[in-house]
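Invent a record, attention on tokens:
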Amino acid sequence: MKKIIFIGPPGSGKGTQAKRLASRFEIPHISTGDMLREAVNDGTELGREAAPIMASGGLVPDDLMVGIVKDRLAKKDAQSGFILDGFPRTLVQAEKLDAIVGNGTEGVRVLQLLVPDEAIVKRIALRRSCAQCGAIYHLENNPPANGSVCDRCGAEVVARADDNETAVRTRLEAFHRQTLPVATFYKSKSVLREVDGVGPVDEVFERIEKSLT
């Protein structure tokens, strides 16, 4: 059973690489960010509570995140393995995840993507996503072929509300303050693998695969 966790700052490429790895291993890619954005768009109670926090670049409270992750991991498709993207983000979440998966960190591999802050700011400022299917683009490195139209489904490609420099720097501050202790937690358990996240997507993916061997 493969239990893989991606950690890294916003815009480090976690989502892109996690999706590729999920396809390779045929296990679900579980993105807490996607789940939260869906809740916001659907106007659920969780979405209404999370919306202003996300818009300001803050982190959603631990109890809300742990609840939605626990429910997701209980689903049938996650019983043979999973890739977590965006969770855990705090030490409390990491400790509670140990209890959720049952065997602590047994069988877990944690991949930390390392990307400098200034590179993150530039990446996110130019990031765009499809309003319908969620496909991710970058105006400099991976622009949609037809201007502001998604290559996959033809819907509009837009900038997310929290993809602005002020919100990004707030998110980076929160990451350094709250999420880096998570890396220390997993490093102490000898399950952390640090991966250089700078460079072409294919090269980063090759580094990730090597780190899992």
